[in-house]
Design brief:
A: about 550 residues, alpha/beta, two-stranded antiparallel ribbon, 25 helices, 11 strands, about 10% strand, B: about 350 residues, six-stranded mixed sheet, five-stranded mixed sheet, 9 helices, 12 strands
Chain lengths: ~550, ~350
């Protein structure tokens, strides 16, 4: 009899292993934030609650971003907004009301946003951004922010802000909702992710290079002398291991690699297993779940243990080699590298997790403990390297704890590093446009909207208004000229943008449609959460949202 | 034109006929509260759904499809969105024109089965321990004297503690209160941002559809922002023999000796049909209506379950009518039999 049960894929025991900070969350919060805690754990929530974001301009997009940050419990926000609420604002922003027309927009929005979550702090600064940037305590103020979100700024201001925050190494998210198009640009110098939560990973089984504990476990399993019950409840890894042992006696070290070799291996394995099974019932054929599982697993379980190439790249990264600043992440990467070259023998620490498989409880738990024990031994070795590295530099042992290292080792296969460029550099045409050029070979690519947004910004710099915002027809011609010039500066003169897109852009008149802003806002808010929690992987570094086709184009500028 | 948004609570199919429209925010108007969907459809321009169950979606879908396929032959678009953690989807269904919910029924992820013997005899995972307590220990010990209420912290605490005991018996670690609650309530993680994105996508489609300012999406969007941000819309094609929106009759081929019970089990378990509790009737050779099995007439029809279909009068090409909560209209199945040698 089968019981139907729905099991959400992320069991909390796997996706959020023993948190290094062992954050303790109150009962009440545990209930309130239950659904999101299952995604980023108590430690992620703690990081979120310690964060303070700065939003520039409480437009529809701005408030939508804050909404999706305040609801999950961000520590606090500061809105910088020097505009007053207009009738137009009330028409597309749920957080501004008719009776607030004429008031400072940021302040008006702050009150309603705060209603969403009493635990969040929020305030507004009614001052021009240029004067804030010019004031002597500007850097002190901005340094209190974990991240700045800017929207509704013209290119000149954006460039100024971008350079300023780049120099201070404060992450900046630039975003806009423009007619039926959206744009998000992440500006971050270096972002390290230990907990990337990959959707799927190959299991770390080490059948090709079993560690001593695994060898001992396997040697204790004697298939020949098993009775039927024991045989049909043997974890399939045992079958694979023994078969591999036999294969190696013939062919030497290594694994069946070619298609033919694997097929042959699988066929032999099946034959010997079925023979053994039928020997219990006088040659009669019967089924066994663990045999089925075993045969299905052959292809994925017999993959050679390998360090992913992007992790190898981390080892030769300058930050790892030089290790001049006390960065927790790079100290652990360096220790990982040293481990790999010594105790690990060119392999990462054993991950320690074992997929479920048909088996009796005792042998499964024992096998799982074998993997866990080796994972602990490996993590301990990495930690010893960490201590040595800290001592060599005279750095405090408090920088990296044992729990940090255990956590890091378990996630070592899925580390992600991102390095970015400043938006100011992008505006100044100093970033690489090769990818853009390739995308534009398709005249209907969403990259067209990226180009048009940039052209619209140029247009505003030259004419003081956005195309189509005052007059549509005249602006079409003007936008086209700006566009052609921009493409030529990029070295993409051969690219031509269809007239219909230029018309469409003028039709938009830089208007902000609420539902488009809400979409972009939800996306941008989640990017903020990824960055402050260091979990999951942020966009690297640009997306264009097309609300007509409901598609997103990612590109790196 | 009226736009209705059905609330984001767990609505079972029976409830949907008595739904209330809730305001989306303080400033949106509470529209109306109606007894039956049928009484308001003449005012409907389109329907937007934010439902929490597949069953309710199927019901809504079959309602709108039938309004198109049968009189009043009105084409009411359905915009449907769903989320799960960092993943989401939004789709637009123009009855008769684009793929409907039923067309893509087999896209809904299959449920994970834990074999009973694993739970009872060879638990290995913390989930097995929890399920053991939920399915076996609770009914046996009936603490609190009633059924499990997933929202009652005392119930969850009891299950959690018993699961811990079972876990320690077998050396299984990793049982937490949160995991216990997740398994018992079948909790799906959720976050404000994904919900905002999908809701916004649906709203944009409504806006485009109603105003005609831009083409509507065509027709199924998939969204995932766990790694970067991914969003892609593809054209989901109609299923030629879709149970809800195609006018073709469904053909089922069974073994010669198939019993009525086997047919019903198939309709429940098959990813194509995924019925809940189908009732089966047929028209006999003499032209009379005969109920083969109906839950509401269980005493009278239970005996038929173990009989073979042939014994019940089903021949090659006989059409049987199947009714179920998952569809407004009965489904017509044409039954054929395999020769004994084929499976």
């Amino acid at each position: 009899i089968q019981i139907k049960i729905s099991l959400f894929k992320m069991s909390l025991t796997d996706s959020c292993p023993n948190s290094p900070n062992s954050a303790v969350i109150s009962n009440e919060k545990s209930k309130r934030y239950d659904r999101q805690l299952r995604l980023w754990g108590d430690h992620g929530q703690a990081a979120l609650e310690l964060s303070h974001v700065c939003l520039i301009n409480a437009t529809a997009l701005g408030t939508e971003i804050l909404k999706s940050l305040v609801q999950p419990g961000i520590g606090g926000f500061t809105i910088i907004d020097w505009e007053s609420v207009t009738e137009e604002d009330v028409g597309n922003n749920f957080f501004l009301t008719v009776d607030q027309i004429g008031q400072n927009r940021g302040q008006a929005a702050t009150n309603l946003i705060l209603e969403l979550n009493p635990d969040v702090n929020g305030k507004c600064i009614d001052e021009q951004l240029t004067s804030i940037l010019a004031s002597p305590d500007a850097s002190g103020m901005f340094k209190r922010f974990n991240i700045v979100i800017a929207n509704g700024l013209n290119e000149k201001l954006l460039s100024q802000l971008s350079s300023y925050l780049w120099d201070l190494s404060i992450p900046l998210i630039i975003c806009r909702s423009y007619g039926l198009v959206g744009h998000i640009r992440i500006q971050i110098k270096e972002h390290c992710v230990i907990e990337s939560h990959p959707d799927s990973s190959l299991d770390d089984l080490r059948l090709d290079r079993p560690f001593p504990g695994l060898v001992k476990y396997m040697n204790e399993q004697n298939i020949e002398t098993m009775d039927k019950a024991t045989f049909t409840h043997t974890p399939q890894l045992v079958f694979l291991y023994k078969a591999l042992e036999r294969w190696r006696q013939d062919k030497g070290d290594g694994l069946p690699m070619s298609r033919m070799e694997k097929a042959e291996f699988k066929a032999n394995l099946e034959e010997s297993l079925r023979k053994k099974l039928s020997s219990y019932s006088n040659g009669e054929y019967s089924d066994a779940e663990n045999i089925d599982e075993c045969l299905k697993a052959v292809n994925t379980a017999l993959v050679p243990t390998k360090i992913p190439s992007n992790i190898v790249e981390l080892f030769s990264d300058e930050a790892c080699q030089k290790l001049e600043t006390p960065s927790k992440f790079w100290i652990m990467v360096r220790a990982l590298k040293d481990f790999v070259n010594k105790e690990g023998m060119k392999a990462l620490p054993v991950r320690g997790s074992l997929p479920d498989m048909h088996s009796d409880s005792e042998r499964y738990v024992s096998l799982q403990n074998t993997y866990r024990h080796q994972a602990t031994l490996d993590a301990d070795a990495v930690y010893k390297h960490v201590l040595r590295i800290l001592d060599e530099r005279g750095w405090s042992h408090n920088l990296v704890t044992e729990a940090d290292v255990r956590f890091f080792s378990k996630n070592a296969h899925a580390l992600r590093l991102q390095r970015g460029t400043s938006y100011a550099a992008e505006i100044a045409l100093k970033t690489d446009v090769q990818t853009l050029g390739c995308l534009l070979e398709d005249p209907d690519s969403d990259a067209v909207f990226y180009v048009l947004l940039r052209a619209a910004d140029r247009f505003e710099t030259e004419y003081g208004s956005y195309p189509g915002s005052l007059e549509v027809d005249v602006d079409v011609g003007r936008l086209k000229c700006v566009l052609v010039r921009l493409l030529s500066e990029w070295g993409l003169s051969s690219v031509s943008i269809k007239d219909e897109y230029i018309h469409e852009f003028c039709r938009y008149g830089a208007s902000e449609i609420h539902s488009v802003a809400a979409f972009v806002g939800g996306c941008a808010a989640q990017e903020v959460i990824k960055i402050v929690t260091h979990q999951y992987v942020p966009v690297d570094n640009t997306i264009i949202y097309n609300a007509m086709h409901q598609t997103i184009l990612s590109l790196k500028m | 034109m009226c736009i209705f948004r059905i609330g984001r609570h767990e609505i079972d199919v029976e409830d949907i006929t008595n739904f209330t429209v809730k305001s989306v925010s303080k400033r949106a108007k509470l529209v109306t509260k109606h007894k039956t969907f049928e009484s308001i459809h003449q005012d409907l321009g389109l329907v937007v759904c934010g439902l929490d169950s597949v069953v309710a979606r199927r019901w809504m879908n079959s309602m709108l499809v039938s309004l198109y396929v049968d009189p009043p032959n009105k084409q009411i678009p359905l915009i449907d969105g769903g989320t799960e953690g960092f993943k989401g989807n939004a789709r637009i269904i123009i009855p008769g024109k684009s793929a409907c919910i039923e067309c893509t029924l087999n896209l809904y992820p299959p449920q994970v089965n834990f074999p009973l013997c694993t739970i009872a005899q060879t638990p290995r995972l913390p989930e097995h321990c929890i399920e053991y307590v939920r399915m076996m220990q609770w009914p046996a010990e009936t603490p609190f004297g009633k059924d499990i209420d997933g929202d009652n912290p005392e119930h969850i605490q009891w299950i959690f503690e018993k699961a811990l005991e079972r876990g320690s018996q077998y050396g299984i670690s990793g049982i937490t209160y949160r995991l216990t609650q997740g398994v018992v309530k079948n909790i799906i993680p959720a976050v404000a941002s994904t919900n905002a994105v999908i809701a916004a996508a649906c709203a944009t489609e409504v806006f485009k559809l109603v105003s005609g300012c831009a083409p509507i999406m065509n027709n199924y969007m998939v969204f995932n922002d766990a790694d970067g941000i991914y969003a892609y819309t593809y054209e989901q094609e109609k299923k030629k023999d879709c149970m809800a929106c195609s006018l073709e009759s469904q053909i089922i081929t069974l073994r010669e000796e198939s019993t009525l019970r086997e047919l019903i089990d198939y309709l429940i378990e098959s990813p194509v049909y995924q019925m809940r509790s189908p009732g089966v009737t047929m028209v006999t050779a003499e032209g009379r209506n005969k109920t083969l099995y109906m839950k509401t007439l269980r005493e009278h029809t239970e005996a038929n379950l173990s009989k073979s279909l042939k014994d019940l009068g089903v021949r090659e090409g006989t059409e049987v009518n199947v009714t179920d909560v998952t569809s407004l209209l009965p489904c017509i199945l044409k039954i054929y039999f395999d020769s004994p040698m084929t499976s």
